[in-house]
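Homework help board

Subject: predicted structure for assignment chain

Our instructor gave us this sequence and asked us to write out the predicted structure in token form, then describe one feature. I got the tokens but I'm not sure how to describe them. Can anyone check?
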Amino acid sequence: MSVAEKSSSPQPQASATDSMDSPKLSQTEYRTYNRMAEVMEYYVKISYLLKHSQTQILNVPQHSHFRQTWKLLYEACSNAKRPAQMSIRQFLNTGLTFCNHLHAHHSIEEMHIFPVLARKMPAFQEELELLTQHKQIHSGLEKFQAYLQECIAGERELRMEEMKSLMDDFGKVLWAHLADEVDQLAAENMRKYWTVAEMEAMPI
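My token output:
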């Protein structure tokens, strides 16, 4: 699977089979079914229900943000040169912020979003595709985070080639996951499992 960054919001993938089996979605229906894919890809606000029916709004970076930050870090490592006007500490803190945000993003998904989707969608069920990718990502992410923390603490010297190697350990699965998750949430896939009313009640 290509790990190239998507340049536009997910669009329904029409096929002859789709046309025969399912009626075409209206614009309103498409927006409803595609909302979770767009939120996951572009926006930063997630709302979910806590106990006692309280709603929590969290500002959590989404996929487009992760791609942008990854590119900044990885290109710097590949070129053995930090971005202009960025100190070593700022560069390391950018990496640590990336790690913390990705941990938070996945934790919210696993606690509040995946369990809802898993009721009908196999890809979100435990030990299958997307949760397995989470585990593979975090295996490398934790080593990457530990390295950055040691550099910040002065326990080791930052070496760009070493940092790049740590990113390579989980980069392929991370980029595949960012694409796979949004593909699963795209309108033409979501309509196979959910009604419009169910989509409107989703936690994001």
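Reply (TA_rk): Your tokens look well-formed. For the description, you could write something like this. Confidence is low (pLDDT under 50) at residues 1-20, 43-61. That's the kind of observation they're looking for.
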